[in-house]
Amino acid sequence: LSAQGWFARGITDPSRYGFRTGNLSVTVTLKDGRSFTLDFGLQGGQTALAAVTLDGERWVFVCPPNLYWFIKTYLMPSVQ
Predict the structure, then answer these.
(1) Cα dihedral 12, 18, 21, 27 sign
(2) What is the helix (H) or strand (E) element at residue 68, kind and residue range?
(3) Residues with Cβ < 8 Å from 46, sequence gap 6 or more?
(4) How many whole angstroms separate alpha carbon 19 and alpha carbon 16?
(5) Where are the strands (E) in the chain, listed by range?
(6) pTM of the model
(7) Residues 41/25, Cβ–Cβ less than 8 Å
(8) pLDDT tens column, 25-37
(9) In sequence order, which residues have a C-beta less than 8 Å from that of residue 34 and are 6 or more positions away?
(10) Which element (helix H / strand E) includes 70?
């Protein structure tokens, strides 16, 4: 995981950053069984805010444009 820039940590009001039920999220499960979920919030231009839980604390960061483009292009279900 890489971040274009770290934005906040230990957030208490996720909706302030655009995180809502039903938003895009991606979960990765490693071979050792650990899972990490990347949740997306406010979008702007070529990127969006994203959040991940690390050591029990929510961290918000600016998702790198190339990663956000990849997720939007290949991992989001198409709307028809």
Answers:
(1) negative
(2) helix 65-70
(3) 65, 68, 69
(4) 7
(5) 5-9, 25-29, 35-44, 47-54, 57-62
(6) 0.81
(7) no
(8) 999 999 999 999 9
(9) none
(10) helix 65-70
